[in-house]
Amino acid sequence: MAKEERQSADPPTPAVGRRWGMVIDLDRCTGCQACVVACHAENNVPVVGETEAAYGRSMHWIRIERYWEGEYPRNKARFMPILCQQCTEAPCEPVCPVFATYHSEEGLNAQIYNRCIGTRYCGSACPYKVRVFNWFDPEFPEPLAEQLNPDVTVRSRGIIEKCTFCVQRIRRSEEVAHVESRPVADGEIQPACVQTCPSDALVFGDFNDPDSQVSQLARSRRSFRLLDQLGTAPAVIYLKGGETNV
Amino acid sequence: MSDLQAAHPEEHSPVPAGEEQETAHTQDEFRQRLLLEQTRDWEINQAVLQPMLRTGAGFWILAGVLAAVVAWGLYAWSYQIRWGFGVAGINRPVYWGIYIATFVFWVGISHAGTMISAVLRVFKADWRRPITRGAEAMTAFALMMAGLYPLIHLGRVWKFYWMIPYPNNRGMWPNFQSPLMWDMVAIFTYLIGSGLYLYLAMIPDMAMARDNTKNWRYQLYRLLALGWRGTEIEWHKLHRALSIFSIVIIPVFLSVHSIVSWDFAVTLQPRWHSTIFAPFFVIGAVYSGLAALATILVLVRWGMRLQGFLREEHFNALGKLVMVAGMAWLYMWFAGLIVEWYGNEPVISEMLHEEISGPLAPLFYLLLFCNLTPIVFLVFKKVRTTPVLLLVFTLMVNLGMYIERVLIIPGNLQRNYLPFNWGTYRPTWVEISVVAMTFAGFALLYLLFSRIFPYVPVWEIKEGRLRYTLRRIGRLLVPTAAEIE
To answer: Which of B299, B275, B288, B321 is CA-nearest to residue B107?
Structure first.
């Protein structure tokens, strides 16, 4: 059983090139939400405010889902960081009428903001509900406007956006490596959430490199993929949490 | 046509009192159907043209109210475009709300026009003659309203043309894998097809109206009649075109609603991802469309005093069709439900429980009440042939079918595989105004159409009269095929 699971959790990989992916160790996640804040800051994700968020309009590209297990007082909180799973067989991709979302050669499920016309079909098709919509023009009240990331577009109203695995950081590291005439080292690329996670629950890397940290972690007996039964083949692999959870 | 008029035999001898009741009844029915009482063509012309020309205060008041609703809806739509989709009630995970539900509703309504007109034409059902144009117009206008929604629900409607394949600076085609592209292709095909079908069948009547009107109407009809004279070759070509159209448009109409259902069924959303969706949507469309046609015919007959043309037999036949479509709908609905129920998958069973005994229960039971009651009552001929009752029951069907779409789209989207992302949905004033805009817009277009174009296809009626005669055989009057055929 465990062996089979382990095999199924290996993402199908293209023969050559990179296959960026992430491993999330649920045993390490404390639910502190630092990744959420880091992601907002890195990717110019607007903050919508309490009322809108309560109505399902929050725009986090990564969110901590908290589930309660058991009955009080023996209940436990389970935390699960969920971001775009960068599916190999992404349900969101074929349904977009204008190719605003497509599969990149590195296995990224890319979102082209400029092409999006806002049918929200990808959002309906996504089983993880990680695609967020710009309900209004984005607002960055002072001093948030002072820290907008110049590497990332600010999206207009009426389009879908989502986690990109911080593609701007991937590109920058690749360029730096290229200038220094060397391959990108394992662990050199860190999306904002990975960089911020105080307990190192999130690890980013290349699944095509069998020696990379993510490949090694994915071979753990604890590995599973979210909603694996749907056959979306995510590039995010979770490591099951044990009794250590809060 | 007028040459042939002489060929029409004038047989008016009343049925002798001693005849069998049944025979007398059949004769009456045929007499009515073939409009044999109105023996002169110009009388039929006038009976159709007069209600168009006489527009009372009621018409203008109604048109004014509808136009006001449309104007308000346009304001609401522009408000949404200006400020963003946040002014509508949708959210994550309910990315599609009553806009899409209403879209499905209008596409559904559009189906009965073809159903009635093309299918009955193919099967040479003679009673169809007076109601074909009303049905075809309903198809065309309902599709126009449906066609607005793919625009209304776009986050960036000003970029809508990016869905159209044209040589562009982005250097790319639209994605033909996307069901939305299939949708667009299907709806445009159906709109063009049903528009042409409506227009083709109207050409001889345009000529008739041209010959009987003055001023701007004359100019308009002269233009639209395309110089129709009524020569043999013209009739031949028209009949040929119509028979091709009525056969070709049937697969188109089946495909349109199947494709609409695949918008939902091709996703992994629980309760959407189902093989029965395409036939279920098609039969639901026929159910609601036929009901809407009956509703409209009752209202138009009352508003335009067309009692002579839209008669008991039409309501009777339409009522039967609605009933049969309702039974078919019930069958498909149950076939879908029982599989979901016994499948007992956690998310789906949670969704079913929310419909049966949860927050969606009021809508669910209203849907069942509205969709099932008419099936029971339309069994009775008395109900089918009483316009008021037919109006009530067909309105119920459409309320029920609208609720069905609301339950399927925003209702189902509230739940998904990850309970953390469950949500609720409440439509806002913007959405309600825009939806009201399309209902008022449909009514307004239909209203204007009925005053600008002959609502009853005069040539089809005349053709029906020419095709049959009442002939005396022994002591019986028998409806027979005319010799001129």
So the answer is: B288
Q: Coil, helix or strand for B140? A: helix
ipTM value, please give it.
0.88
Per-residue pLDDT of chain B (485 residues; tens, 9 = 90+): 344 444 444 444 444 444 455 566 666 666 666 655 556 777 777 777 877 777 788 889 999 999 999 999 999 999 999 999 999 999 999 999 999 999 999 999 998 887 778 888 888 777 788 888 899 999 999 999 999 999 999 999 999 999 988 898 888 899 999 999 999 999 999 999 889 989 998 999 888 888 888 888 888 898 998 988 888 899 999 989 988 888 888 888 889 999 999 999 999 999 999 999 999 999 999 999 999 999 999 998 888 877 778 888 889 989 999 999 999 999 999 999 999 999 999 999 999 999 999 999 999 999 999 999 999 999 999 999 899 999 999 999 999 999 999 999 999 999 999 999 999 999 999 999 999 999 999 999 999 998 889 888 888 877 777 776 667 777 776 666 655 43
Distance CA B136, CA B212 (A): 24
Chain B CB within 8 Å of residue A127 CB = yes
Q: How many CB pairs under 8 A join A and B?
A: 138
Q: What is the SS3 assignment for A202?
A: strand
Q: For B270, which residue in chain A has the nearest alpha carbon? A: A127
**Rounded distance, CA B286 to CA B280, Å?**
10
Which one of B178, B421, B423 has the shortest CB-CB distance to A95?
A: B178
End-to-end CA distance of chain A: 27
**pTM for the complete prediction?**
0.90
Place of tokens 């709109």: B191
- Alpha-carbon distances, residue B244 vs B115, B131, B248, B464 (angstroms): 15, 20, 6, 20
A76-83 and A202-206 beta bridge pairing: unpaired
B174 near A CB under 8 A:
yes
Q: How far is A161 from chain B (nearest CA, A)?
A: 12
Tell me which residue in B155, B417, B419 faces A133 most closely, judged by beta carbons.
B155
Q: Write the CA distances from A8 to A1, A90, A204, A223, B53, integer angstroms.
A: 11, 17, 19, 9, 74
**Residues 403 through 462 of chain B touching chain A, CB cutoff 8 Å:** 413, 416-421, 423-424
What is the third-level CATH fold of A2-239? Alpha-Beta Plaits (3.30.70)
Beta-carbon separation of A116 and B155 below 8 A: yes
B269 touches chain A (CB under 8 A): yes
B262 touches chain A (CB under 8 A): no
Domains and CATH numbers, chain B: 66-447 (1.20.1630.10)
